[in-house]
Design brief:
This protein is of the alpha+beta class. It is 35% helix and 12% strand. The protein contains three helices and four strands. The strands form two sheets. The protein has a two-stranded antiparallel ribbon. The protein has a two-stranded antiparallel ribbon with strand order 3-4.
Length: 81
């Protein structure tokens, strides 16, 4: 398992404000050039090769991080009376 500092990310998908990324890797194992794999391989010390990538790992501190991030978001929400 791995640890992260953030779990909640801004989404560029029109219907969604945020996305949660609680797993690193992909079990599909397709042979097409994978943008996510290439970026992780370049910028992460966790993923060094394709065999590591196709064995997804859970973010072990996901629940703790998500709780903190959601609480911060709730504090910023203003609901008019």
């Amino acid at each position: 398992m791995i640890k992260r500092k953030n779990l909640l990310y801004k989404s560029r998908i029109p219907l969604f404000d945020h996305a949660i990324n609680h797993i690193e890797g992909c079990s599909h194992g397709c042979q097409y050039p994978c943008y996510a794999f290439l970026m992780k391989q370049k910028f992460s010390k966790h993923i060094s090769n394709w065999d590591d990538w196709i064995k997804p790992k859970l973010v072990e501190n996901a629940e703790e991080i998500l709780e903190k991030e959601l609480n911060r978001k709730r504090e910023k929400v203003h609901i008019p009376a």
